[in-house]
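Handout, tutorial session.
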Amino acid sequence: MPPVRTDVSSSTPRTRRTVLRAYVALTKPRIIELLLVTTVPAMMLAARGIPSPWLVFATLFGGTLAAASANVLNCVADADIDAIMRRTRSRPLARHQVDTRHALIFGLVLGVLSFAWLWATTNLLAAAMAVGAILFYVLVYTLVLKRRTAQNIVWGGAAGCMPVVIGWAAVTGSVSWPALVMFGVIFFWTPPHFWALAMRYREDYARAGVPMLPVVATAERVARQIVIYSWVMVVWTLLLVPVTGWVYVSFALLAGVWFLTYAHKLHASVRRGENGNPIKLFHLSNSYLTLVFVALAVDSALSLPVVGLP
């Protein structure tokens, strides 16, 4: 972790509104939104319908606190490289809009609150897994993997897969195989999603000394890996067929073909020596994951109970 800075830039007028916006920005709201999109469908599949509105709210609120905690602590640990990269140099700590020590305390408090809230409103298993996800993201991914291996996002991305498991646990009090399948969908989705972004900002990561795969491998190899992980991801979505209906299966197949088409186009373009516009695949990956999990939610709301589903 970089040395703690206590200096705050005086070049920007600090009002309550600007300070509040800076603290909110530390939590990376856009990333949290995507995590929450996957949590609700997981809860609906676990309940085979619509769970208690209170339980959904409690789980989403606790999950938001946990994700915000992990993101803030990530910003604290990565403040030095965020200041170097063009994509991230406008973040609050990189611009000295927030005192680093205060940001650290903010992130830790959010983590404690997430555990207390989830334990009080859902169950201890969901609360413990939320804390485990925070620790894994910060200690394993951010502080160990990110700056040392090109496989950083493959294994580090496991933290982002936890919301579906936490949502399942909040409903059932346990973890069953459908929750692990949903975990796998996001796990295999993460590399194509992030490597496409890293291809676009390769120079940024190289300048910061972060060995993302596009920095240490050829563009063709990265595109090939994206295709491989995309195929595994799409096939993995079909493992939920035994506990879903035609709505989910249809959209999983259609969305999968859609995503694979663009992944192969990127690979073909790169092989021809062209840029391939990887950022398009990055944005498409967000739409893909949202579509698959929304289809799962609709399917769960419409389907009859499945005998034997935990």
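The second record follows below. Compare its token runs with those of the first.
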Amino acid sequence: MTERRTSSRSRGTGGTPPVRTAVRNAKIASLPIAYAGRQAAGVAKRARGKSAAEVNQDIQMRTAQHIFEVLGELKGCATKLGQLLALYELALPPELAEPYRTALAQLQDSAPAMLPATVHAAMADELGESWRWNFLEFDDRRAAGASIGQVHRAVWRDGRQVAVKVMYPGAHQAVLGDLEQLRRLSILATVFAPGADVPAVTEAICTSVAGELDYAAEAEHQRIFAEVFADDPDIVVPKVITQRGNVVVSEWLHGTPVTRIIESGAPQERSRVGMLILRFLLSSWVRTGLLYCDPHPGNFRVLPDGRLGVVDFGACVSWPQDGFTELVGELVDSALNGTIADLDVALRRHGFVEPNRAYDVAAIAEGIAVVSEPLAESSFRFTTEWLRHRVRHVMDPRLSNAHRQMTIPAYVTPFARALLTAMGVLAQLEAEGPVRAEFARWSPELAAAFERFDNHHAQPTDLGLVRQLRANPPARRFSVVS
């Protein structure tokens, strides 16, 4: 009971996450300190005859629970780091990954909900003291949590059902204050993926989270997506009603969360939903000029008519389309159809290897061939086991791992985050379908590479399916300036 009372006092008033810098810093700093303490205690336990395996598992379980409790309470960039650690869980053997999987399941809703008085004050700050005039109904209860705020269900003054996203009071200050602390958590890499370049990954996540503090930009992103997908037969993006400061009001989407589809959906439905998510991601950056960087299951709904609904557009970045298509086309073509020398040239030209650095390009070629399996087959089925093996191969901490010799161009980081997160969702869904045909539909460069691959391997090309998919081209293409 004492621990619970202490936790309650440390939280912000009104049910908000703690925003005082000293409190947040102390909570984050407690993570590596507690981890070191558990390791020291483990030495004593082994001395008393407890097996190393039992001690290590106990340390893993306690550390996982502590990390996700703290990250869940702090929210903001801490929650985003927790989402990233969900990918690290894939790098662990199944018997060791269970503690992290269990703790992660509690992360999304672990922050305290804002009390009604706090919500009302936040709404008044942004929409004015007469803010209730805008709504026929407003539910004070939280309908869903977000990393830096929460969502309420309401009825707009014209009768439309809407979602009202409200940022936690003080979230700007709290999140920006967290960034430096999160950069110092590299010691926790030994828990999730020994040897990983955690500072670089954390920097990318923190940069993304800082951008997500701008609700005006988020609303503009959503308006662009909603206009582009307005007449799409498969995808629905809710329209933005209004945005004022740290409040965004948009249309409410009635649907089944993809998390529920993952848990209990029939195989055919899981595959259909997975392919729709892939279609949305691949088509949206071509059609909008923006990359959707946060495709985790909580941001998707399956509407009653079967269409895929998409929410939360805070994590979007302008995308250099021309340079990216050239990069992907050359890398995939050299990996599928070229020699090891061709791949070496492509990797160096596009900045994946530092100039004049020696590396095991043959091992990289072998690894790329394995990861490219979805693009080498006309139909592919994702599984968590398949993805786990690929992630563990890349994140192997041994110095002999050739992937440790590689780097990644800074502008590719958002795409890598989106792609890996999307593959995680497809693996959870165990989605199966014409993956490479969907890639080829939105990239002529990839379509040409796939056709050369089929011709070389004397297998029938599936580009007829690609032409069929392209029969209904998108209405128009947007040019977005950051």
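Points raised in discussion: The CA atoms of residues 265 and 287 lie 30 Å apart.
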